[in-house]
Amino acid sequence: MICRELLHEGTPKFRKASTKASLRAFVRPSCNFAQQLHLNIFIFFRNEPTMTTRRRFLGQSAAALAGAYWLQSSDAFAQSSSYIHFDLHSHPGMFLTKGVATNVDAAVAKTIGEMNKGKLTGAFFSLVADAPIIKVSPTGIEPNGSYGPGEAWKEYKRQLGILKEYLKSTPVTYATKASDLRTALQANKVAAYIGCEGGDFLEGKTDRLDEMYADGIRSIQLVHYHVNELGNLQTQDAQYDDGLSASGKEIVKKMNKLGMVIDVAHAAESTVKAVIDITDSPVILSHSILRVDDNRPLAKRAITADHAKLIAKNGGVIGAWPSGFSMSFDDFIDNVKRTIDVAGVDHVGLGTDMDGNFKPVINSYMQLSRWATALKTKGFTEDEVKKITGGNAERVLKKVLK
User: Fold this and answer.
1) pLDDT tens, 141-174?
2) Confidence band (pLDDT; 50, 70, 90) for 82?
3) What pLDDT score does 160 carry?
4) Strand 172-175 vs strand 284-288: parallel, antiparallel, or unpaired?
5) Which among 33, 106, 125, 165 is placed 20 to 30 Å from 92, CA to CA?
6) Cβ neighbours of residue 30 under 8 Å, at least 6 residues apart?
């Protein structure tokens, strides 16, 4: 996750929220950002106008007819019973801001409604482990304070409780097994797997994984924006010579044993290499894109060719990230193709970062058919498109989840 308000025009004026008793419980007295802790990161996502509109087919009549053919065939393709759309990283409606932000119920309902209407088959609905201790700065997202004893775990329980209530009250299929994806497809409801962005909730304690697994967590992204006890970040100076700490290595092994998907998004290349050296299961890098140059927005979050090849070597999947790194939807598709050219068609999927992204070029699940169409126009076969839109993700779920 990265905030859409990345301050190209200076520090945004954050809306003030009423102090809530639930916030006082987990914010340290020395951290006076209680009123802003989630607003700084999330509150504006739902209010920003759509960044991308569909381009009209202009020009010669032949070109227009060709465009119409691709759109029609893609819609039929996307709605076929064998077609899987999977999102490796999503924050529907920024559900975790409930109690801090306003209109969260409506935002969640909107996104989940679009998931079902747009024929999304499944997604990781992601908590954000360091949400209260990061902030927006002129250069991006950065740490802002630290958790005190017990605060991280209390925040985990708060976010999880909110999400589980939404899973009960919205038209989704709560998912914990790989087979739940096909069950949801038949029921025409999105399969909601629970993920966690950042391993901060663990506080380096391997035994907490047992409780998180019992709670339904099926994927943990080891690091995010705040340095934690597990490994190195793309956006901060390295803390561990080997890429992973001793506890980070134990957590990777325990996640393998339990059957939890390891997510290495936001992790430095050294950390990804360390994970790949240890794990006996395929991993995901849920949302990133192949590096172009260092002058683009979010360039630190892009990955090198060698970084991408580590995921391919492991048999994992990179979630192509439709963020403001790409100048437009078409530029994003070009960047996806470049990533596939390096990692291979078996190792790329989609990680939208929905409702938590910076200047997204995919900002609604109603664009999924367009996504499939664009891949086909780039020369990918029908079978290859099926892999990219969800087949590769399903393969990893089948290999990892028990």
Assistant:
1) 999 999 999 999 999 999 999 999 999 999 999 9
2) low
3) 98
4) unpaired
5) 33
6) 145
Residue 48 CB neighbours (<10 A)? 12
Give the chain's domain count: 1
The whole domain housing 324 covers 21-48+58-400
Local confidence band at 10 (pLDDT 50, 70, 90 cut-offs) = very low
CATH code, 297: 3.20.20.140
In a domain, residue 240? The reply is yes
**For the whole prediction, is pTM greater than 0.70?**
yes
The one-letter amino acid code at 36 reads Q
